[in-house]
Known about the structure:
483 residues, mainly alpha, two-stranded antiparallel sheet, 2 strands
Amino acid sequence: MQYKVVLKVLGVLLVLFSSTLLPPILISWVYNDGAARSFLAAFVTTFVTGLILWLITKRESRDLRFREGFMVVVLFWTVLASFGSIPFFLVTTPALSLTDAFFESMSGLTTTGATILTNIDELPKSILYYRQQLQWLGGMGIIVLAVAIMPMLGVGGMQLYRAETPGPMKDTKLTPRITETAKALWYIYLGLTAICAFSYWLAGMSAFDAVGHSFSTVAIGGFSTHDDSLGFFNNAAIDTVAIVFMVIAGVNFALHFVSWRSRSIAAYLSDPEATAFVGILFAVSVLVITILSAAATFDTPEETLRQGLFQVVSIATTTGFTTGGYDWWPSFLPLLLLILSFVGGCAGSTAGGVKVIRVILLYKQARREIVRLIHPSALLAIKVGGKPVPDSVIHAVWAFFSLYILCFTVLGLAMSASGLDWISAFSAVAACMNNLGPGLGEVAANYANVGMVGKWILSIAMLLGRLELFTLLVLFTATFWRS
């Protein structure tokens, strides 16, 4: 293990992250909310730590290998969450414990959206902005941004990109050079954020709320500047903007790049994962709206359509915005939506969950095994988009799915042991592993009532979900540490 290389990269990334603490300082001064000193202390601590790490390793010129790439990603997310928690811990409003501060920071960076905060409307403006910004940075991954400057530092970036990028097929690059890939992703990400913010503003939000909610919408995070989330606005136009951009953010960003470059939507129409994603949203929306209508849950058909569609898209994309909650809906709908979050969005998007492409491959593999019962000697290839999928990918998907269920079960039992009822415990783990946010039972609104042990367990669940299991768990194998 090349520890000096790891420390060098970590130092650079911490210096980069420290710069993101400057906007909250400015906002605190503008609104005079009293939080500027806390952010300034966090900036100095983060910057100095990163600078020291870089100075003691700056002569190191070796490139990252795959092993160091995994180490940097895991270390950075845990270290970043720790440094990101400093402002939450230092401010007097809200007065958070170290555990609560770390939980909120981890939730933001992993775009989970699970919060321990109450009375959000009364928080300092700088804290409100900072929460939204954390999700925006975590949405695409600050490491992918850092990859764009790594060649200038003598550090290769492909290993980081492979370890950080979600999805089962990680070798695909949009452009020949990984630096250009990272830049392309961030240009698209930034452009969508700007368009989303402008759309929210036109729909009736203030400029502050529009920017904040565009951060969490494009990042599929779910944090809001209000306790009632988007329900605070009670505005059909705002809900429509959110639905559109949640769907866009739930699609593979590579498709956005190809579509923008070719000036055509053909890439979306020909992609089996994107079409399946939209198909799932449509089918579940029809089912949910039908049941809500039959139960007369809302007063008008228009309200039923709006609420049903919004909540399905929000949960399916693992955004976690709410307009009034879904835990009280009739029949099996709350459980259906929670299960839907396990599917999540497309690979290469900012969504959480297992990802649609994996669900497609699992279905095709199961169907192939059924056919083999009748034709045991047949050679049956699994194809996606007309192209055969290697068996190695299928095996990896099955391994991922099995590990996902195992981690969910173990963490759910651990949460039950921490004192939560089983509905709250397992829904909390599901919501955190899928980077969703709101669960059922005691965690439907927030996680303030979860004990200290439970919050650390759920922080692990968030990290597992954000890094898609393997990136984190590989560090606990003996093979990883053998030179």
